[in-house]
Amino acid sequence: MSESTERRQRGYREIFLDPTVPEPSASTPDAPADDEGHPQARRVPWFILALAGLFLVSVAASALQASGGTQGAGNPAAPPAAQQKDYDGFFLPGDDLASALEEARRSGRRGVAVLFEMEGCGECAKLRATTFKDEKLRASYNEQFVTLSLLADHPLPLVDFDGQATEQTEFAQRERVFALPTLVFYDLDTLPVARQVGSAGEVADWVRLARYVAERGYDEAPFSHWQPAN
């Protein structure tokens, strides 16, 4: 295991580095009883939901690979034809996180913003067709981050932040991406410092999120409580 990967995993364990996601509780209380003393249904623990999501993503990826319907002839890692579509110049498909990180450092940006999505994802399409059309948002993200898109449901080849060969599906699972779309911000040390799940929220909230990461607001407070200096 590389030093940076070890550091990132240690960070997850010690301080839960995704401030936009509530930290899971350490224990699950006993189920409350109703008026007659019968136990009520217990809320499903967060890690069970996470494992279920991971299983569904794995099943979807396996089904796509087995069907061959979305793969190029003679190349099991070929991107699906739909991936060739016009991404409108924003969060373009990528396959080399190490190079993206190098570009971010060289250009003076704050880090790398990775959009995890999949073909046929309605919420992913909605995000691109609405929020991501805003010019102010685009300018803010492109100025502060190197942006790229990964397919969480397809085993396309990928070079991770450590320069190691992997697959986009495997990387998404490793990064605990269980719902799509998910946008994850990585700082220049490859630490995932913030994430946004789904397509909800006003454009202003997404712009504020970019500023939150660029100004290291996560060192001060969770995103929901953070107030910019001016």
UniProtKB/TrEMBL annotation:
Pfam families: Thioredoxin_2. Residues 109-198 form the Thioredoxin-like fold domain. Keywords: Membrane, Transmembrane, Transmembrane helix. InterPro entries: Thioredoxin-like_fold, Thioredoxin-like_sf. It comes from the Bacteria. The chain crosses the membrane at residues 46-64. Residues 1-16 have a biased composition (Basic and acidic residues). SUPFAM superfamilies: Thioredoxin-like. Residues 1-39 are annotated as: Disordered. This is Thioredoxin-like fold domain-containing protein. It comes from Pseudothauera nasutitermitis. The lineage of its organism: Bacteria, Pseudomonadati, Pseudomonadota, Betaproteobacteria, Rhodocyclales.
